[in-house]
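Milestone M4 deliverable, item 7.
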Amino acid sequence: MGGDLVDAFCATKHPTGMSSDALSPDEQVEAMTDLLNQLDRQGKLGGVQTGNHDNWSDSAGYRFERFLSELSCPVFSGEGEIDLFIAGAEKYTVWWAHTTWGNSKINITNAPKRALQFNSERADIALVGHTHQASAEQFDIAGKSKVAIVGGTYKTQDSYGKKWGMGSVGLPGYTLLLWPDSKHVEVSRTPEVAQDFLLSQIYQLTTDESWVDPYTRSKK
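Output delivered:
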């Protein structure tokens, strides 16, 4: 989760936006923490970021992170890194932040690309939230493959945002396929396409008599 988990419009931050929200700020927090706790219990959260919307609670004297205290996954309030070990073998370093310098409405992946250059040279993947338009780009830095992603927003219908020039934002999110036996990343626009790809690969490989399960091989 890349931050801005709730709108949190209130009397001191975009008060006119309160009228277009279906839930009050406290109800938004309750619903989101319930969802996050469910995902965490299922082992589906690698980490959670807090964003500027969430941190507006500071003006009321409480830290949003307190609502996330029961999560077992890491909780970030700024940039950080997560190392992913696929099948206990291949390591992928993910740099992520809710936002960073270099946000652009034209060159959407500019911010995570700059982060891979200046914030974390060892990272393979950079994830950034905050802006509402999703985009992904694969490129090389000094001969090493990198992936830059802006996650976009899951609030695809936003009447208040349209008043401020935030129109159609398209599909949110991306699914990354990480190889266990070599440093290789493929980016899928939807989880359904990623699932179809994996199933087709499994079918092709298991029908080849010379195939060796990379998960088994990586553990030898």
